[in-house]
TrEMBL record:
Localization, UniProt: Cell membrane
Keywords: Cell membrane, Membrane, Transmembrane, Transmembrane helix
Protein name per Swiss-Prot or TrEMBL: LysE family transporter
Membrane topology qualifier: Multi-pass membrane protein
Entry's transmembrane regions: 6-29, 50-68, 74-94, 115-135, 147-172, 184-202
InterPro entries in alphabetical order: LeuE-type
Main location (coarse class): membrane
Superkingdom in the source lineage: Bacteria
Length: 204
């Protein structure tokens, strides 16, 4: 059981820590809209990581070759979603603030959760990573308690890192105050997401 938990923690941090579209978007959310919104987005990413960990445990290494056969369409889909998110971030950042200090279409925590959930869901590297990890591991997950421990630990590890990113963005918001700063934060975050979309296409 302890081995399964440790394997899950390593898997969760291994997929969550590398810088990507989710990290850039969460930091931008935190800087522009505060910790609660960014934290909801982070939990969206962690939910997908936990779901993919579950799929990987159930299907194992047999899933990786199947995903690789559709890897190129998945990368194009991922890139299109990232471009859409980047365009929305730019448009939201350039709109004038309302009296409360937030742009009129500031994302709610629920929308942030859904958006980040979808961004993470269409990332083909996530499920391939978990499938390869479980398939090549010496840890046996044929028992339900061990498999459950692995999935829960992976999701918890991912969630803890996403919350760190949300907190970092929220901390940045204390330095970047005012309408102009929020606009530049959104634009810079959008450019980072566009860059990652281009990188995704080049990998296709």
């Amino acid at each position: 059981m302890i081995t399964a938990v440790l394997a899950g923690l390593v898997a969760g941090y291994g997929i969550a820590i590398p810088v990507g579209a989710v990290a850039a978007y969460l930091i931008t959310l935190g800087a522009a809209h505060g910790f609660p919104t960014a934290a909801a987005g982070g939990l969206g990413a962690a939910t997908v990581d936990a779901l993919y960990a579950l799929v990987a445990v159930v299907l194992g290494a047999a899933l990786a070759p199947l995903i690789m056969t559709v890897a190129t369409p998945l990368r194009w889909l991922s890139a299109l979603v990232l471009v859409g998110v980047a365009v929305w971030m730019i448009m939201a950042g350039l709109r004038p603030d309302v009296d409360g200090g937030q742009p009129p279409d500031a994302p709610s925590p629920r929308r942030a959760f859904t958006t980040v959930f979808l961004i993470t869901l269409v990332n083909p590297a996530t499920v391939v990573y978990f499938a390869a990890l479980v398939g090549g591991s010496t840890v046996g997950f044929d028992r339900v308690p061990e498999a459950t421990a692995f999935v829960v630990a992976a999701g918890a590890a991912s969630a803890s890192w996403q919350l760190v990113l949300a907190g970092a963005g929220a901390g940045l918001s204390r330095v970047l105050t005012g309408q102009v700063a929020r606009r530049w934060t959104g634009v810079v975050g959008a450019l980072a997401v566009l860059t990652l979309a281009g990188w995704t296409l080049l990998a296709a």
